[in-house]
Design brief:
Blueprint lengths: L9 H22 L2 H18 L2 H4 L6 H4 L7 H4 L14 H29 L3 H30 L7 E9 L10 E5 L5 E6 L9 E10 L2 E3 L1 E4 L6 E2 L3 E3 L4 E3 L2 E2 L28 E6 L2 E6 L9 E8 L5 E6 L17 H6 L2 H4 L14 E5 L7 E4 L10 E7 L8 E9 L14
Parallel strand pairs: 1-9, 1-10
Antiparallel strand pairs: 1-4, 2-3, 2-6, 3-4, 5-8, 6-7, 11-12, 12-17, 13-16, 13-18, 14-15, 14-17
Helix pairs in contact: 1-2, 1-6, 1-7, 2-7, 6-7
């Protein structure tokens, strides 16, 4: 229902996100575990709080960041709605959705008016913060109504159905051993996650368990995927009311092993037809740039990046994101200003040598020339703020990503002894 990212505006919320997240949350309460259900309501709570934030509700607000911060108030103590009685927004799914939409629309209007009042007293925070607190308190009331309604409807006894459970085993995912596996019932809206198990079979790098209950009777196929492994799919299974079926799947390692890119060959398309999961596309002239999901990175590691291309004219970029501006850097690999960075040899700055330092500031791009499939290595400085993640970008004229690449990879390795004296002593 919502296979792409959307913006934070209330227009995007009402047009695309509200109903999709609302119905997905109800489904999770009725068919998944409480843990997964609470995960699903997280995005809606986020959107409700955005609608209740004065600078979000008033897009022309010139003081966006400052208006989101309380400086004199302890938010945990100030934002309290003791004695408020949460309201049930509806007795049916559709009735509650319509009331929730109206409740959020009223909240946005409430907060937009507070933004206008806040701008009139800016920058006097002593006068501004009580105005912002009005929005914060009203947002808390809307959140209470939403949660009470979701728990009431979602935890009501659903029609009797069948139960599906099982174990997923998979290859190692380096540095993040508790990463879960995604479990999907093919050609349906049902999905969940296999959560890491404390016990695992001998010789298996990772094992996780999943559970779906109250499933309508019918024939299903189970698909499982975990980053670093190939997806696997079961034979058709029959779900019957009141009965439990167990389906275990083993996911084989991907090539190269320990690859941290999600869906690196673009063959998994379970969210939208002919569109690879977790890849976003944007057009640039006659070409398309595909961007992968953000992969986590750890300071002090070397990341071996590469690709095998089907389209010899495609260009692949590995974009390492940084968490702060160069102006904030202190003692990070000897780079504390933009001038320090610019004084480094060009081959280091552009990733053309065997090793390259990732600076702080704008994302740093390491490119493979069109047709190039050999990996290059990148050495991170030992600084946690360099690790806002890495994405892969593939630029191609081909109509689909799977026609442009055979696969891409980012593999973390232990760093060798330093070759050059670029890191400060003690790192």
């Amino acid at each position: 229902a919502l296979p792409r990212r959307i913006g934070h505006s209330t227009g995007e919320l009402f047009k695309h996100a509200l109903e999709a997240h609302y119905r997905r949350s109800l489904q999770a309460f009725r068919t998944e575990t409480p843990l997964h259900a609470c995960r699903q309501i997280g995005p809606l709570l986020h959107y409700i709080q955005d609608a209740g934030s004065p600078p979000h509700a008033q897009p022309k607000c010139p003081h966006h960041i400052s208006m989101e911060l309380f400086r004199r108030l302890n938010a945990a103590e100030a934002i309290r709605i003791d004695g408020y009685r949460a309201q049930l927004l509806g007795k049916t799914d559709d009735e509650a959705l319509a009331a929730l939409r109206k409740r959020i629309e009223d909240l946005a209007a409430f907060s937009s008016e507070r933004a206008e009042r806040g701008m009139a007293v800016w920058p006097d925070r002593q006068k501004l913060e009580p105005i912002l607190l009005e929005s914060a308190l009203e947002t808390a009331r809307v959140c209470a109504d939403f949660l009470y309604t979701m728990f009431t409807l979602g935890l009501a006894e659903p029609p009797e159905g069948g139960t599906l459970t099982g174990t997923i085993t998979a290859a190692e995912f380096p540095l993040y051993p508790d990463l879960e596996a995604r479990v999907v019932l093919v050609d349906t809206d049902y999905c969940t996650s296999a959560i890491s198990s404390a016990e695992k079979p001998s010789g298996v790098a990772w094992s996780g368990k999943y559970l779906l209950h109250h499933l309508p009777p019918g024939t299903y196929r189970v698909l499982a995927y975990r980053t670093g492994s190939q997806p696997a799919i079961s034979k058709p299974i029959q779900i019957e009311a009141g009965k439990t079926v167990q389906v275990d799947l083993h996911l084989t390692p991907i090539d190269p092993p320990r690859n941290i890119v999600y869906n690196p060959d673009a063959k998994l398309s379970s969210l939208a037809k002919d569109r690879p999961d977790r890849w976003e596309a944007r057009s640039v002239g006659k070409q398309t740039i595909w961007t992968s999901a953000i992969a986590p990175v750890v300071a002090g590691k070397i990341y071996r990046c590469g690709a095998v291309l089907k389209d010899p004219t495609a260009q692949v970029r590995f974009v390492f994101r940084t968490g702060a501006d160069l102006r904030d850097v202190q003692n990070a690999a000897g780079i504390s200003t933009l001038a320090h960075w610019l004084r480094l040899p060009p081959e280091i700055r552009h990733g053309q040598g065997d090793y390259a330092l990732v600076p702080k500031g704008d994302p740093v791009v390491f490119s493979l020339s069109p047709g190039q499939a050999e990996p290059k290595e990148i050495c991170f400085p030992v600084c946690a703020s360099y690790t806002a993640g890495v994405v892969v970008e593939v630029q191609t004229e081909k109509p689909s990503l799977a026609e442009a690449i055979e696969r891409v990879w980012i593999v973390p390795e232990e760093p060798p002894l330093p070759r050059v004296g670029l890191l400060p002593a003690g790192h």
